[in-house]
User: Fold Putative zinc-finger domain-containing protein from Xanthomonas oryzae pv. oryzae.
Amino acid sequence: MKTFFIAPGKECSHAWELMPAVLLDSATEEENTWLIAHVAKCASCGAEFAQQNRLRQALALPSAVKLDPNAGLQRLLGRLDAPEHHTAPARTPAAHRSGSWTVRALAAAALVQAIGLGVMGFKLASPAPSHDYRTLSSATTLPVPEGAIRVLPDAKMTVADWDRLLHTQQLQVVGGPNDLGAYTVVPAALQPPAQPQQTVQQLRATPGIRLAEIVSAP
Assistant:
């Protein structure tokens, strides 16, 4: 079996790095075996591993269960500080103080990460808001003139080409552009009933026009 080297004094920090992978079943068999053996003989790492396991189980709770992340963080930091309050000597070595703050920072980061994963999971599990499908000719709050046509020109179409097209088809703009960039146009003069459909066909065949459709029947 392949082994990995861990520098003396780095066992606990390496155990902290492996805990999320082991709990998520993404660690190798060797890493899993090493971590289980380490937490069995290291009380502080064993307590942390149990805490992270409880956090993982909490993420699996139903979304209706409300969690208090601040209370959980305070309890975790309180347990980390408790040994210092009861057994702290008169003079604490600098290395011990540095290690304590490192443990606190790692604990806070682990809890924040777990809470973030829980929130993300809740959002993914929640049903997305429904949006009604609308076409360019969907009904709007304002009345549309009879025989109106919805036209969507290409973004590269120049104003001169657009004006020339309106003049050629004898159309005038009465609305737009909407959110999609489409305009509502109507005949500039009275036309026979079949003319709007013919105009739509001509518009669709015009370069630079992406879409043309009748908004209301003539």
